[in-house]
Amino acid sequence: MHSEKTIAIVDDDEGVRISLASLLRSFGYRVSTFGSATAFLESGAKPDCMVVDIQMPAMQGDELQARLIAEGRLIPMIFMTAFPTEAVRNRVLAAGGRAFLEKPADTDALVHEVERAVA
């Protein structure tokens, strides 16, 4: 069980947040969900790992990553997007992103990446 580890899910799609939270809880993780990057930043949350959508209103996932890095908050981040591009993939991975998954994400791949990130 991974009950001591907290995973933050940041995605503007409520259905995605609910399904990912349910999946990760079934593997014993504590999960916090946020509908935007701004909501995450305002929460003061300190997760062990984050699953972050790239395309969100106001602040995109790669912008959230840059902001957290600038603040010295080096949280393992797994990115997901329905609109993958090599440019974004390369940018987030070069900045320390742990994985870049295409939506809908393969659940086994997602769980594997979360397990790697919190190990």
Automatic annotation (TrEMBL):
Keyword annotations: Phosphoprotein
GO biological process: phosphorelay signal transduction system
Domain (Response regulatory): residue spans on this chain: 6-118
The keyword Phosphoprotein is annotated on this UniProt entry: yes
Superkingdom as given in the UniProt entry: Bacteria
Residues annotated with 4-aspartylphosphate modification: 53
Signal peptide range: none
Cited Gene3D superfamilies: 3.40.50.2300
SUPFAM superfamilies named among the record's database cross-references: CheY-like
Stored InterPro entries: Bact_response_regulator, CheY-like_superfamily, Sig_transdc_resp-reg_receiver
PROSITE patterns associated with the record: RESPONSE_REGULATORY
Identification of the protein by name: Response regulatory domain-containing protein
